[in-house]
Amino acid sequence: MDTVRTCAALAGAGFRRYSTYRQATVAGAFTNIVFGFLRCYVLLSIAGEAGELAGYDVRQLATFVWVSQGLLAVVGAWGMLDLADRVRSGDVVADLLRPLGPFAVYLCTDLGRLGFAVLTRLTAPVAAGLVFFELYLPADPITYPMFGVSVLLATLIAFCARYLIGLSAFWLLDIRGLTMLWVFVWGAGSGMYFPLPILPGWAQLALWLGTPFPAMAQAPLDILVERGGAGHAWLVLLDQCVWLAIGLVVCARVQRRAWRKLVVQGG
CA-CA to 70 of 20 to 30 Å: which in 37, 99, 186, 198? Predict the structure, then answer.
Protein backbone atom coordinates (compact mmCIF):
# COMPACT_ATOMS: atom_id res chain seq x y z
CA MET A 1 0.00 0.00 0.00
CA ASP A 2 2.87 2.36 0.80
CA THR A 3 4.36 1.60 -2.60
CA VAL A 4 1.08 2.51 -4.32
CA ARG A 5 0.90 5.81 -2.45
CA THR A 6 4.52 6.54 -3.32
CA CYS A 7 3.90 5.84 -7.00
CA ALA A 8 0.79 8.04 -6.98
CA ALA A 9 2.75 10.84 -5.30
CA LEU A 10 5.51 10.58 -7.90
CA ALA A 11 2.96 10.67 -10.72
CA GLY A 12 1.34 13.73 -9.17
CA ALA A 13 4.73 15.37 -8.81
CA GLY A 14 5.46 14.67 -12.47
CA PHE A 15 2.14 16.25 -13.46
CA ARG A 16 2.82 19.37 -11.37
CA ARG A 17 6.38 19.62 -12.64
CA TYR A 18 5.35 19.83 -16.27
CA SER A 19 2.33 22.02 -15.55
CA THR A 20 4.66 24.74 -14.25
CA TYR A 21 6.21 25.25 -17.69
CA ARG A 22 3.21 27.07 -19.13
CA GLN A 23 5.08 29.13 -21.72
CA ALA A 24 6.92 26.05 -22.97
CA THR A 25 3.61 24.19 -23.20
CA VAL A 26 2.00 26.96 -25.25
CA ALA A 27 5.06 27.28 -27.49
CA GLY A 28 5.20 23.52 -28.02
CA ALA A 29 1.51 23.27 -28.84
CA PHE A 30 1.80 26.20 -31.27
CA THR A 31 4.75 24.53 -33.00
CA ASN A 32 2.82 21.27 -33.28
CA ILE A 33 -0.10 23.12 -34.87
CA VAL A 34 2.12 24.93 -37.39
CA PHE A 35 3.80 21.70 -38.47
CA GLY A 36 0.38 20.07 -38.51
CA PHE A 37 -0.74 22.44 -41.25
CA LEU A 38 2.44 21.80 -43.24
CA ARG A 39 2.26 18.02 -42.95
CA CYS A 40 -1.46 17.90 -43.62
CA TYR A 41 -1.31 19.94 -46.80
CA VAL A 42 1.67 17.94 -48.08
CA LEU A 43 -0.08 14.61 -47.60
CA LEU A 44 -3.38 15.90 -48.98
CA SER A 45 -1.60 17.23 -52.05
CA ILE A 46 0.04 13.84 -52.58
CA ALA A 47 -3.37 12.19 -52.31
CA GLY A 48 -4.51 14.60 -55.04
CA GLU A 49 -7.45 13.77 -57.25
CA ALA A 50 -7.46 10.14 -56.16
CA GLY A 51 -8.61 11.23 -52.74
CA GLU A 52 -6.59 8.53 -50.99
CA LEU A 53 -3.02 7.62 -50.12
CA ALA A 54 -1.82 4.14 -49.15
CA GLY A 55 -5.33 3.15 -48.14
CA TYR A 56 -6.12 6.35 -46.20
CA ASP A 57 -8.85 8.66 -47.45
CA VAL A 58 -8.49 12.41 -46.98
CA ARG A 59 -10.30 12.44 -43.63
CA GLN A 60 -8.14 9.62 -42.30
CA LEU A 61 -5.02 11.39 -43.52
CA ALA A 62 -6.02 14.61 -41.78
CA THR A 63 -6.77 12.72 -38.58
CA PHE A 64 -3.47 10.85 -38.84
CA VAL A 65 -1.55 14.11 -39.09
CA TRP A 66 -3.26 16.10 -36.36
CA VAL A 67 -3.40 13.31 -33.81
CA SER A 68 0.22 12.37 -34.52
CA GLN A 69 1.22 15.99 -33.83
CA GLY A 70 -0.40 15.64 -30.43
CA LEU A 71 1.08 12.20 -29.78
CA LEU A 72 4.57 13.54 -30.37
CA ALA A 73 4.51 15.13 -26.92
CA VAL A 74 2.29 12.49 -25.31
CA VAL A 75 4.52 9.54 -26.17
CA GLY A 76 7.53 11.72 -25.41
CA ALA A 77 10.00 9.56 -27.32
CA TRP A 78 12.25 12.56 -27.99
CA GLY A 79 12.42 13.69 -24.37
CA MET A 80 15.44 12.08 -22.77
CA LEU A 81 15.54 11.30 -19.04
CA ASP A 82 18.16 12.92 -16.81
CA LEU A 83 19.49 9.45 -15.92
CA ALA A 84 22.61 9.92 -18.05
CA ASP A 85 23.44 13.17 -16.24
CA ARG A 86 23.07 11.44 -12.88
CA VAL A 87 25.34 8.64 -14.04
CA ARG A 88 28.07 11.08 -15.07
CA SER A 89 27.78 13.05 -11.83
CA GLY A 90 27.60 9.95 -9.64
CA ASP A 91 24.23 10.95 -8.16
CA VAL A 92 22.79 7.67 -9.41
CA VAL A 93 24.37 6.02 -6.35
CA ALA A 94 21.92 7.89 -4.12
CA ASP A 95 19.04 6.72 -6.33
CA LEU A 96 19.87 3.12 -5.49
CA LEU A 97 19.34 3.79 -1.78
CA ARG A 98 15.75 4.91 -2.18
CA PRO A 99 12.74 2.64 -1.46
CA LEU A 100 11.85 2.61 -5.14
CA GLY A 101 14.47 1.91 -7.79
CA PRO A 102 15.28 4.39 -10.56
CA PHE A 103 13.14 2.55 -13.11
CA ALA A 104 9.98 2.82 -10.99
CA VAL A 105 10.69 6.43 -10.01
CA TYR A 106 11.24 7.58 -13.60
CA LEU A 107 8.24 5.58 -14.82
CA CYS A 108 5.81 7.02 -12.26
CA THR A 109 7.04 10.54 -12.95
CA ASP A 110 6.66 9.95 -16.69
CA LEU A 111 3.06 8.81 -16.22
CA GLY A 112 2.38 12.18 -14.57
CA ARG A 113 3.94 13.87 -17.61
CA LEU A 114 1.70 11.72 -19.81
CA GLY A 115 -1.43 12.93 -18.04
CA PHE A 116 -0.49 16.58 -18.46
CA ALA A 117 0.48 16.09 -22.11
CA VAL A 118 -2.86 14.47 -22.92
CA LEU A 119 -4.74 17.44 -21.44
CA THR A 120 -2.67 20.06 -23.24
CA ARG A 121 -0.35 18.96 -26.02
CA LEU A 122 -2.78 16.41 -27.48
CA THR A 123 -5.98 18.43 -27.27
CA ALA A 124 -4.57 21.59 -28.87
CA PRO A 125 -3.55 20.07 -32.26
CA VAL A 126 -6.68 17.92 -32.39
CA ALA A 127 -8.84 20.98 -31.73
CA ALA A 128 -7.06 22.88 -34.51
CA GLY A 129 -7.61 19.96 -36.86
CA LEU A 130 -11.32 19.82 -36.03
CA VAL A 131 -11.68 23.55 -36.74
CA PHE A 132 -9.85 23.71 -40.06
CA PHE A 133 -10.24 20.20 -41.51
CA GLU A 134 -12.77 17.42 -41.73
CA LEU A 135 -11.40 14.70 -39.48
CA TYR A 136 -12.32 11.05 -39.36
CA LEU A 137 -14.45 10.08 -36.38
CA PRO A 138 -14.42 6.35 -35.53
CA ALA A 139 -17.71 4.59 -36.19
CA ASP A 140 -17.19 1.83 -33.62
CA PRO A 141 -17.43 3.06 -29.98
CA ILE A 142 -14.87 0.49 -28.82
CA THR A 143 -12.26 2.24 -30.95
CA TYR A 144 -11.95 5.06 -28.42
CA PRO A 145 -10.93 2.95 -25.39
CA MET A 146 -8.70 0.81 -27.64
CA PHE A 147 -6.98 3.98 -28.81
CA GLY A 148 -6.46 5.07 -25.21
CA VAL A 149 -4.92 1.71 -24.27
CA SER A 150 -2.74 1.82 -27.37
CA VAL A 151 -1.46 5.30 -26.50
CA LEU A 152 -0.57 4.12 -22.99
CA LEU A 153 1.27 1.10 -24.37
CA ALA A 154 3.09 3.29 -26.90
CA THR A 155 4.21 5.62 -24.11
CA LEU A 156 5.43 2.73 -21.94
CA ILE A 157 7.39 1.22 -24.85
CA ALA A 158 8.96 4.61 -25.59
CA PHE A 159 9.83 4.98 -21.90
CA CYS A 160 11.67 1.65 -21.93
CA ALA A 161 13.68 2.81 -24.95
CA ARG A 162 14.50 6.15 -23.30
CA TYR A 163 15.51 4.39 -20.09
CA LEU A 164 17.85 2.11 -22.04
CA ILE A 165 19.42 5.13 -23.71
CA GLY A 166 19.95 6.64 -20.27
CA LEU A 167 21.53 3.42 -19.00
CA SER A 168 23.95 3.46 -21.94
CA ALA A 169 25.75 6.29 -20.13
CA PHE A 170 27.33 3.61 -17.91
CA TRP A 171 29.34 2.57 -20.96
CA LEU A 172 29.30 5.61 -23.27
CA LEU A 173 29.29 8.47 -20.72
CA ASP A 174 28.27 10.91 -23.48
CA ILE A 175 24.99 9.81 -25.09
CA ARG A 176 24.42 12.82 -27.35
CA GLY A 177 25.33 10.90 -30.51
CA LEU A 178 23.05 8.02 -29.59
CA THR A 179 20.25 10.47 -28.78
CA MET A 180 20.53 12.18 -32.17
CA LEU A 181 20.47 8.80 -33.92
CA TRP A 182 17.42 7.77 -31.89
CA VAL A 183 15.49 10.94 -32.79
CA PHE A 184 16.03 10.38 -36.51
CA VAL A 185 15.37 6.62 -36.55
CA TRP A 186 12.33 6.85 -34.29
CA GLY A 187 10.69 9.54 -36.40
CA ALA A 188 11.25 7.64 -39.64
CA GLY A 189 10.37 4.19 -38.34
CA SER A 190 7.43 4.99 -36.09
CA GLY A 191 5.12 6.61 -38.63
CA MET A 192 5.55 10.07 -37.16
CA TYR A 193 7.09 11.57 -40.32
CA PHE A 194 4.77 9.74 -42.74
CA PRO A 195 2.27 6.85 -42.66
CA LEU A 196 4.21 3.60 -42.85
CA PRO A 197 1.82 2.02 -45.42
CA ILE A 198 3.48 4.33 -47.95
CA LEU A 199 6.51 2.02 -47.76
CA PRO A 200 6.78 -1.26 -49.71
CA GLY A 201 5.20 -4.27 -48.06
CA TRP A 202 8.50 -5.91 -47.13
CA ALA A 203 9.71 -2.73 -45.41
CA GLN A 204 6.49 -2.45 -43.40
CA LEU A 205 6.74 -6.08 -42.33
CA ALA A 206 10.37 -5.63 -41.29
CA LEU A 207 9.52 -2.58 -39.19
CA TRP A 208 6.49 -4.14 -37.51
CA LEU A 209 8.11 -7.48 -36.71
CA GLY A 210 11.73 -6.48 -36.26
CA THR A 211 11.53 -3.15 -34.44
CA PRO A 212 9.37 -1.53 -31.76
CA PHE A 213 9.10 1.76 -33.67
CA PRO A 214 5.64 1.28 -35.25
CA ALA A 215 4.25 0.34 -31.82
CA MET A 216 5.10 3.85 -30.59
CA ALA A 217 3.08 5.91 -33.08
CA GLN A 218 1.71 4.06 -36.10
CA ALA A 219 -0.15 1.57 -33.90
CA PRO A 220 -2.48 3.98 -32.03
CA LEU A 221 -2.98 6.05 -35.18
CA ASP A 222 -4.06 3.00 -37.20
CA ILE A 223 -6.49 2.06 -34.43
CA LEU A 224 -8.00 5.54 -34.33
CA VAL A 225 -8.65 5.77 -38.07
CA GLU A 226 -9.90 2.16 -38.04
CA ARG A 227 -7.47 1.04 -40.70
CA GLY A 228 -8.02 -2.67 -41.32
CA GLY A 229 -10.99 -2.93 -38.98
CA ALA A 230 -11.24 -4.50 -35.54
CA GLY A 231 -9.09 -7.50 -36.46
CA HIS A 232 -6.14 -5.29 -37.33
CA ALA A 233 -6.66 -3.23 -34.16
CA TRP A 234 -6.41 -6.32 -31.92
CA LEU A 235 -3.27 -7.47 -33.75
CA VAL A 236 -1.76 -4.03 -33.26
CA LEU A 237 -2.48 -4.14 -29.52
CA LEU A 238 -0.97 -7.63 -29.32
CA ASP A 239 2.15 -6.37 -31.09
CA GLN A 240 2.43 -3.52 -28.60
CA CYS A 241 2.06 -5.88 -25.63
CA VAL A 242 4.81 -8.10 -26.99
CA TRP A 243 7.18 -5.17 -27.47
CA LEU A 244 6.39 -3.82 -24.01
CA ALA A 245 7.20 -7.20 -22.46
CA ILE A 246 10.46 -7.31 -24.41
CA GLY A 247 11.29 -3.78 -23.34
CA LEU A 248 10.70 -4.52 -19.65
CA VAL A 249 12.87 -7.65 -19.76
CA VAL A 250 15.69 -5.87 -21.59
CA CYS A 251 15.55 -2.91 -19.19
CA ALA A 252 15.79 -5.24 -16.19
CA ARG A 253 18.77 -7.11 -17.60
CA VAL A 254 20.68 -4.05 -18.75
CA GLN A 255 19.99 -2.35 -15.43
CA ARG A 256 21.43 -5.30 -13.51
CA ARG A 257 24.59 -5.17 -15.65
CA ALA A 258 24.82 -1.41 -15.13
CA TRP A 259 24.54 -1.77 -11.33
CA ARG A 260 27.16 -4.53 -11.41
CA LYS A 261 29.48 -2.29 -13.40
CA LEU A 262 28.95 0.48 -10.87
CA VAL A 263 29.83 -1.81 -7.96
CA VAL A 264 32.92 -3.19 -9.70
CA GLN A 265 34.17 0.33 -10.32
CA GLY A 266 33.76 1.15 -6.62
CA GLY A 267 30.52 3.17 -6.79
Answer: 198
